[in-house]
Amino acid sequence: MSLAAKEKWRKRVVALLRTVLLIGIAYVILQPLIYRFSTALMSMEDLYDQSVRWIPRKPTLRNFRLMWEHMDYVNAFGRSFFLAALTSVLQLFTCSMVGYGLARFKFPGSQIIFGLAIFTLMIPPQLIMTPSYLNFRFFDFFGLLKGQPLNLTGTYWPFILMSLTGTGFRCGLYIFIMRQFFRGMPKELEEAAYIDGAGPFTTFWRVMIPGAVPGLVTTFLFSFVWQWNDYLYVTTFMAGRNFLPQALEGAATKVANAVKDADALASSSGFLDDHFYSLINNAGMLMIILPLLILYIFLQRYFVESVERTGIVG
Amino acid sequence: MKRKRRPMSFSRRQKLAGFLFTVPFLVGFIFLFAVPFYQAVVISFHELVLTPQTFELQPKGWENYGYALQVHPEFSKTFTEVLVKLATELPMIIGFSFFAATILNSDFRGRTFVRTLFFLPVILGAGVVMKMEVQDYAQIMVKHLAEGAPFFGGAAVRSFFAAARFPAGMVDYVIDAIQALPTVIRASGVQILIFLAGLQSIPREVYEAASVEGATGWERFWLITFPMMSPLILVNLIYTVIDSFTAMNNELVVLIRETMLRGAGYGVSMAMAMIYFVAIGLILLAVFGLLSRRVFYHV
Description:
The complex is a heterodimer. Helix content of chain A is 72%, strand content 1%. Chain A is an all-alpha fold. The longest helix of chain A is centred in the N-terminal third of the chain and has 38 residues, at 3-40. Chain B has a two-stranded antiparallel sheet with strand order 1-2. The interface between A and B is large, with 96 and 93 residues.
């Protein structure tokens, strides 16, 4: 065999191995999603039927219908959407600003501030959740406000304050991403703007932000997704309000009461059967994930590209 | 002495501007982070009693810590388990994400699609989904059924390798590793992203120069790719520790939350969180201390 032919065969074998490997990995990644879809479409008979593994024999939309109604989906969706959009826009604003300040200006203490941002990432949010809750429950601006302390829990204020000051959930990571992104942008643009007499803030808004769109999209996506999926913050500061996580948790009891008389297999005297619970649970989880999947499909091009451009080296 | 007020020099103005850009974070850090953190430390030495108007702290000294470590039935056990699990999975996550990033960095058809797919766990594996997964009975049932016929890891495999005189510990580790593979793959999204970004930033000319000098692929990997990626290995190690440490389905996090809401109360749960935090901090410091001197920084 000639050398060229050998090389050609080698390439084919490598390509084949890679394809097999990637299909395997893709299966592992997609398996929970496929599993969830198939379970959510099952009826009780399918779940107990040993011969049914992936494809339900009697597919039904009943689980989705029950959850739609008892999660109060439209309202919960609206609330969660508003909260995620609000926090991610505010976090984007602050974190890009802080990231830019750390990326392009050398001033005494800038290294320390960057270190603090990373430090906030290392503290599990659970650790400071109780004191944070107490601070917002009895809010007096840390002693600055006289008189009766305000109760900010149950309002959007805790989220607004934490986002605006870059101390919300994983904000340290967003500051890090934006810093890396701004560091990778060419300096010539800014220098030109300075020569034209623009100040640092004008330069930031007019020159840097438009150039940083892919980085901003990445940060936005992370921020939106993590707020949307968040359970800890929303149940702590918004206890008793119907956001998607609470809606999903609370739905089980409501469904149990609703199907109590009609369906003995699913619910006996108001207690849900464990397996029926997981059917509706999977339907509910899909209803939470689906909007994110759609968002991701729209933004993934920016996302994948910008992550490569950040060049998070050094 | 009167000094004439001059307009600020360019460099001073730049320094001030840089500081102003970071002021929001600084304010937030002090009031919404450092203060609660300090309060958490204080609470861990107290018992917290909530009254309708306000809250009270009753001093307890080191009692909460003693209770968590010696009396609480599950804390020490779960604590060790979580650390062992982290130690097992950490090298695997780093290894897998490095490997996956290398594949994704090569040129082949459908690359964009595969990349999109690989980052999907970043979207799916967070917060509420993880939490609900813990309680999913149908999934647990399916898993039990599947364990009846494992495709790998059965007794036959173990005895085969034992007969071949492989050390038992090594065989166990490999089998456990293969069984943990799905978890590892799903926990690697962000790490792959970080490695991929790093691979893309290595200038092509370096490889070309090495090839001209007659370096083999093996040498190019160990003498160029690996040293250039070493800072990112450090970043990823730290990210992975933090990520698994704060995940909603981390057993210790679940335990701490349970203790707070239904168990021994706020004080004890804060003490547990503090012990956990200090342990992870020490691990991170050790990792950092061991590796940071070996890391190669490309200037």
